[in-house]
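Structure tokens please, single chain.
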Amino acid sequence: MKPPRNWVYRIVALLVAFILLFVMLRWFEHSQVYHPDRNLIATGQELDRPFEDARFKASDGTQLHGWFFPCDQDSARTRLVDLVCHGNAGNISHRLSLCRALLATGVNVFLFDYRGYGLSGGTPGEEGTYLDGQAAHHWLQAKGFQPGNIILFGESLGGGIASELALRETVGGLVLQSTFSCIPDVGAELFPWLPIKWIATIKYDTCLKLPRLKIPVLVMHSRADTLIRFHHAEKNYSIANEPKLMWELKGDHNESVSDERHLTAGMEQFLQLIEKRQLSGGVARDSASTNSSNKIQP
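Here you go.
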């Protein structure tokens, strides 16, 4: 009986090596995109105002958790709500300063955790986070908000989720705060020695979606952002449809919302743009949509 040929062992060894490499690459990609934290460092009561602890389900049955903060009763914007899609790290308990800045504009605010984050069940993934965003949108509708009065606020990774949500659901506006053009573009900049654009399976392709959106868009970004460079914001802004607004933030990636008043000022201008559009029947006829002062705010 002839012994097995060496080429059989070599093929098996190559197959095993390929499988291991594939698994390692997928693990590496997932670990770079998602940094969930299960522990809440706050309860929501820290803002010293009424709030609702929300429990709801995604369409695939995943249990989700969020906090709803109603606006002040005397606000002129009780019909409007910001739906916050947060960044890739931590959970909603790390976003109370952002929530406070948004509430200062007189709107309601709803923050939720994606699957795998905070008290939400499951494991994060691109399609799963899209389903989570839709579930949060549906929760707000069940609470009585008209879809056109729901404003999506996407923070960093959340901008990629919010832009997809704006395609799947009716919304009144989209905010991209410190958001990338797409995940492979960021990965190629952070790991130039890897063929990221060839092997990436997680996309969150914001630029692919923006040209298809016919809603007001606000791009907020800092020139000092060393993680997601300012040119991502410039690209997103350039391909977004009118009406649109660029608002320049300050500080590095995780510091850009530390100046709450400055962020509130940018959101206030955006809300005024949305309100003018709503008054005109959904057609952006106001001069702000074409005025050069909309390009970059100091």
